[in-house]
Write a structure and sequence with these properties.
This protein has seven helices and six strands. Helices cover 43% and strands 7% of the residues. Helix 4 packs across helix 5.
Amino acid sequence: VMESESGPGCEFDVGNLVCYDPTALKVEGDGDMEALIMERARSNVEQLLGKIFALPTEDAPYGNGKVVTLPEPTTKLPREKPVPRPREATKWEKFAKIKGIAKRKKDKIVFDEQKQEWRRTWGYKKANDVTDSWAIPAKEGEVDGMDPWSRASKEKQERVANNRKKQINNLKAASGDRVAGTLDLASVVSASAKKGKKRKHRQRQHVDVALALSQKSTASMGKFDKLHKYEPEIKRAPKPKHDASFQKSYLTEKATTMKLLDKIVAKADPNKININKAVNIAQQEAEVRKRAKKGRAGKRLKRQE
């Protein structure tokens, strides 16, 4: 005898498409436990599908059929990862919050009164640039006689450097306090990437990269360092392999070339001269002289005509 109906404590969470049945299974006599579990699961799934089909339906946006909108889940599932910590506010954000300054969106293009055209608000060829003015009014206290355009360019460079310094300080403050002497893995990875080739994909194994850099930071590049337990071996560049067949072919080619040179220039025996080579050279020189002489004679005949 087997009982397969859902128990009174069965709960349905249609939003998560889940059914919770805490009712105990009872097997009497020679009943089959596996068959009882299958029967209980079938009954619960049927009831869950019945509750889904009881929801209001609407036509599918693509193709034939009906779709339903599931209600809000009633069971709170735990997060897979911890809740991210809020980012530390910068100095300007703290100051703006205290003073009640609201962030407003600036226009990317404004009208330049001097050039009578629309230009960018900032950057290259920006609108209302001081350096493009034909006259710059002097400020009170400027008695050094410096060129006003050079002064404006210098002040711009100082502002850019000051803003860059403030940005770095804000990033340091936002990163939080770190124990003295520890490595900032992100900085180590970015610094190592700048020395080599540009990487198409950003590496995610920050710990592995930092470990590889620290292993090669000694005078011997980690060759004589003792590895700790479970520490991976230091990866070194493989030595170039000398192919035996290539070496053999190289030596054979060298010997053949040297033998040919010796035959042409008689390097093996200084007193020995290649007669055929000398005759060929002499014939070539004679042909060259003959053609040159014939060409000069032809020019003289043309002048006489």
